[in-house]
From TrEMBL:
Gene Ontology CC: one annotated term: cytosol
Subunit structure: Homodimer.
Protein name stated in the entry: L-gulonate 3-dehydrogenase
EC top class, as a word: oxidoreductase
Cellular compartments annotated: Cytoplasm
Domain 3-hydroxyacyl-CoA dehydrogenase NAD binding: 1-175
Taxon lineage: Eukaryota, Metazoa, Chordata, Craniata, Vertebrata
EC number: 1.1.1.45
Keyword Phosphoprotein: yes
Organism: Mandrillus leucophaeus
Family indicated by similarity: Belongs to the 3-hydroxyacyl-CoA dehydrogenase family.
Annotated site location: Important for catalytic activity: H131
A GO MF term: L-gulonate 3-dehydrogenase activity
InterPro entries linked to this entry: 3-OHacyl-CoA_DH (IPR022694), 3-OHacyl-CoA_DH_CS (IPR006180), 3-OHacyl-CoA_DH_NAD-bd (IPR006176), 3HC_DH_C (IPR006108), 6-PGluconate_DH-like_C_sf (IPR008927), 6PGD_dom2 (IPR013328), NAD(P)-bd_dom_sf (IPR036291)
Gene name per UniProt: CRYL1
Organism domain of life: Eukaryota
Length: 305
């Protein structure tokens, strides 16, 4: 899928040899074809990652019809199958029986807990979640989430690898449902839904609050640094605003049911901007990715190295 293809491109951008494996051979052929097209377009746009040319990177990526052959000699295995616990467990059990004591076994899961995902594996110390953000090629964050028995060296090696391929890894100290990114994202979605459902703001205006407001600064600094800068430091901010924040937070409602009625209302507003047919959605995603590519270029110019 998209995540697996992105990982392949990212690893190749770092000069690593990449082998793609899937039980469906057509999936491998489709992936290789899509990767070739995307890399050529990125090169034309001056947005190809790494120091190698598109052809040089493409020469590092190949398909493999046999899982044992695919993982032979590997230093890192990145699983990217659908978000199905039993399916992922089956794959990691299969890998557990054929890998050595050096390779890292990593999952791209966005919400499955490592303690459930890697339970009972012989090589559990080598297991970790490396959760990317969609689309990974343009958004560099990777959440590293260890199993309680994951070796510190596994976390360190994965962190170093992610840095090597130009991603921005962060360490989740212990597992929690949704990890960090989705917990923050769901908190925003939850309050956004309540505000729309209660008739306080329209769906389109709600999105403006993020795209033309919070998102502008969150593209460069996070909520904690925002607090720090919006007063004379964090202690000053808490002294000034904590009572007001607590007052507002107490007015937040329960978790929304995400009812059909509100969903239809939101969908109607969204479709006025982007009709929900495949053609319009694909075009809007392409526009989004182009914006992210330009933002990434800007961030690389203004952020201290």
């Amino acid at each position: 899928g998209v995540i697996g293809r992105s990982w392949a491109m990212l690893f190749a951008s770092g000069g690593f040899q990449v082998k793609l494996y899937d039980i469906e051979q057509q999936q491998i052929r489709n992936a290789l074809e899509n990767i070739r097209k995307e890399m050529k377009l990125l090169e034309q746009a001056g947005a190809l990652k790494g120091s190698l040319s598109a052809e040089e990177q493409l020469s590092l990526i190949s398909g493999c019809p046999n899982i044992q052959e695919a993982v032979e000699g590997a230093m890192h295995i990145q699983e990217c199958v659908p978000e199905d616990l039993e399916l992922k467990k089956k794959i990691f059990a299969q890998l557990d029986s054929i890998v050595d004591d050096r390779v890292i076994l990593s999952s791209s899961t966005s919400c499955l807990m490592p303690s459930k995902l890697f339970a009972g594996l012989v090589h559990v110390k080598q297991c970790i979640v490396a959760h990317p953000v969609n689309p990974p090629y343009y958004i560099p964050l990777v959440e590293l989430v260890p199993h309680p028995e994951t070796a510190p060296t596994t976390v360190d090696r994965t962190h170093a690898l992610m840095k090597k391929i130009g991603q921005c890894p962060m360490r989740v100290q212990k597992e929690v449902a949704g990890f960090v990114l989705n917990r923050l994202q769901y908190a925003i979605i939850s309050e956004a839904w309540r505000l729309v459902e209660e008739g306080i703001v329209s769906p389109s205006d709600l999105d403006l609050v993020m795209s033309e407001g919070l998102g502008m600064r969150y593209a460069f600094i996070g909520p904690l640094e925002t607090m720090h800068l919006n007063a004379e430091g964090m202690l000053s901010y808490c002294d000034r605003y904590s009572e007001g924040m607590k007052h507002v937070l107490k007015t937040f409602g329960p978790i929304p049911e995400f009812s059909r009625a509100t969903a239809e209302k939101v969908n109607q507003d969204m479709c006025m901007k982007v009709p929900d047919d495949p053609e319009h959605l694909a075009a809007r995603r392409q526009w989004r990715d182009e914006c992210l590519m330009r933002l990434a270029k800007l961030k690389s110019q203004v952020q201290p190295q």
